[in-house]
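Retro notes (design track)

What went well: tokenization of the new backbones is finally stable.
What didn't: we kept losing track of which sequence belonged to which structure.
Fix going forward: every design gets posted as structure first, then sequence, in one message. First example under the new rule, 248 residues:
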């Protein structure tokens, strides 16, 4: 179709030049071959219109994202104003897949002005959503608990700490890090390595609470850790337990 467009442009230039530089000759020729020239220019114009319409036609061959296995575990609505949905995923997915899943969940009941969708990962006990896809009213995607690649990177991080290692845990409770508890010279330490590569090391006091080990240092929020019999790291504060990280 681009060749036809070029032909039309050339014909237009010839016609314009004829009118300007040889108007008498061009007029006589047009009168003599009026029918043939009209048909020719009409055909070229029709093909140009078809070519333009095809060029503007949108491309619908975009590959669709494959949706993951999921389950809606909770749903609340407020008139036609708001819809809140809690979703349980089998595992972490990419931002593109989250967007596709959000569109599907929203379109299933597309009568609400705003739709708020929160995602949790199966087997992870977290008070914070792993990710959210909120239509307020436009879609905004936020991943709180680390992407699949970030978690794999943290799991593979070698800390090489001196002393006796008590345990390693990957934490995805709103911030992403790998924590290691170890004993050095009779003292207990926790080293935290964050997703951006930064780290910190703190000394903790060890006590026993029933059958669990309690690690605590002075802080204004009353926060402390418990290591249970399975080696999992529990996060506690004055209001109770709010997260559990499984031992690696």
């Amino acid at each position: 179709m681009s060749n036809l467009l070029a032909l039309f442009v050339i014909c237009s230039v010839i016609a314009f030049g004829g009118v300007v530089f040889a108007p008498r000759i061009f007029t006589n020729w047009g009168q003599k071959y009026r029918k043939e020239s009209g048909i020719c220019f009409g055909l070229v114009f029709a093909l140009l219109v078809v070519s333009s319409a095809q060029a503007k036609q949108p491309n619908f061959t975009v590959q669709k994202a494959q949706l993951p296995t999921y389950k809606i575990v909770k749903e609340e609505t407020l008139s036609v104003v708001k819809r809140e949905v809690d979703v349980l995923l089998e595992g972490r997915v990419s931002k593109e897949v989250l967007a596709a899943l959000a569109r599907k969940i929203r379109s299933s009941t597309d009568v609400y002005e705003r739709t708020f969708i929160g995602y949790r990962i199966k087997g992870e006990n977290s008070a914070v959503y792993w990710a959210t896809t909120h239509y307020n009213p436009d879609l905004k995607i936020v991943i709180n608990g680390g992407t699949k690649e970030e978690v794999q990177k943290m799991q593979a991080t070698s800390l090489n700490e001196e002393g006796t290692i008590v345990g390693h845990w990957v934490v995805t409770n709103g911030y992403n890090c790998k924590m290691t508890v170890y004993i050095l010279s009779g003292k207990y330490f926790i080293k935290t390595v964050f997703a951006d590569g930064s780290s910190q090391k703190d000394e903790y006091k060890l006590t026993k609470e029933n059958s669990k080990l309690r690690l605590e240092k002075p802080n204004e929020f009353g926060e402390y850790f418990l290591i249970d019999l399975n080696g999992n790291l529990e996060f506690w504060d004055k209001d109770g337990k709010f997260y559990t990280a499984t031992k690696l």
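Added context from the reviewer: The chain is about 30% helix and 40% strand.
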